[in-house]
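Re: the 260-residue chain
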Amino acid sequence: MTHTFQFAVCAEMVWRNQPIEWRAARLKERGLGVGLWNYPDHDLAKLESVGANYTIMNGYLEGRLSDAEGADILLKSAKATAQVGKRLGVDRLNLHGTGLGDGGIPIPQHGVFSPGMELRARDTLHRICDMAEKEGVVFTLENLNPLDHPGCPFGSTSEVLSLVSAVNRPQLRINLDLYHTQIGEGDLIRWCEACLPWIGEVQVADNPGRCEPGTGEINYSAVAKALKKMGYSGPIGMEAWAAGDSDAAIDAFVDAFTID
């Protein structure tokens, strides 16, 4: 059995009765990277003391891609977050088309997209890349799904691919979340192929339920083999709730992406 990929787990979604630093330490013990969400929710000194490999973290707290005011807010927030990311040694700082509020609802929600929004979003992402290059960090843009995150601009896999490939700079990669792709578009392996040159991380959860691989409809073993065949050997992050025991959920995730 070989581990072709670099495994990580979102610490927010496992061992939920334990402090976040305990979870990070446990994942480190298991040889896994640690994914985080919003840093103000946690004691940074305690996380820093764990010395884990923090693979991804939300790269902003507020702001938007496609309007002037929102872009300025986003850039300021992302620059502040980059300092936290460097402190923890986070590999990738994650972005969305707009800020997400309670329950993942976008702020604001967009019903109609004007033709200029994508061009403005590209300009904003170039500004993010300029800042990231100076700071020595990398950002990712994550796709979302329209059921959990209705009205999120640039949420679909196709829109994220369009933006990141157009910007085409090493400071901006795709956080390809296959749970969201499954709900929004399906056809996971072809989307992996299309996004491959720009992927910074692949995130996974099964559907329905957003739990670990093997609890839903997605054939993640087939996806793993396809990713290996196309030459991907980068990070695979489990951003999924543990359906039961967290260690068992993580075992199922690692098994699904371990190639014979």
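The radius of gyration is 17 Å.
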